[in-house]
Amino acid sequence: MVINDPIADMLTRIRNAQIERHENVVMPASNTKKAIAKILLEEGYIKSFEEIDDGLQGQLKLVLKYVNGKSTPVIAGLKRISKPGLRVYARCEELPKVLGGLGIAIISTSKGLMVDRVARKENLGGEVLCYIW
Questions:
Q1: Which among 18, 30, 55, 68 is most buried, taking Cβ atoms within 10 Å?
Q2: What percent of the chain is modeled with pLDDT above 90?
Q3: pLDDT digits (tens, 9 = 90+) for 72-90
Q4: Secondary structure (H, E, C), the chain
Q5: What is the predicted pLDDT for the residue at 1?
Q6: Which of 29, 23, 30, 19 has its CA nearest to residue 78?
Q7: pLDDT tens across 1-35, in order?
Q8: In angstroms, what CA-CA distances link 72 with 5, 10, 22, 41, 108?
C-alpha cells in the first residue's frame, strides 16, 4: 500500500488506537517515525516503543500510555501541520507554542527532529511537522 504522507498515517494510527483503547499500535517503520516516537517517549506521551525486524521495511510498535488505567489517553490531541501539499516553515522567533506551552510542536531542523522549546533554546527554525497535546 502506498502512503503519500507517512507522518499523517502515524498520527492517525495513534489517534485511532487510543479511541479504541488499544494498549499498543504497530505501523511501518521509517527513520522519521522512529525520531517522532523517541520524542513522544522523552516527553512522556507513550510508555515505550520498539522496532520489529520483519525482513522487509520493519515495523514500529508503540505502547500507548493512559491515565487512570485505560480511561483517558495521555495524548489528548494530534494535529498534522506541514503537509506534502503545503509545507509550513517557521524561524526560531516564530515557532508556535501549543496550548500556551502545555503541548509540543515537533520541528524538523537542520540538526534533526526536536521539540519547539529545544529548537527555540538552540536558536533553530525549521518545518513544523505536527502539534501534540
A1: 18
A2: 89
A3: 999 999 999 999 999 999 9
A4: CCCCCHHHHHHHHHHHHHHCCCCEEEEECCHHHHHHHHHHHHCCCEEEEEEECCCCCCEEEEEECEECCCCEECCCCEEECCECCECCEECHHHCCCHHHHCCEEEEEECCEEEEHHHHHHCCCCEEEEEEEC
A5: 64
A6: 19
A7: 667 899 999 999 999 999 999 999 999 999 999 99
A8: 28, 20, 12, 18, 29
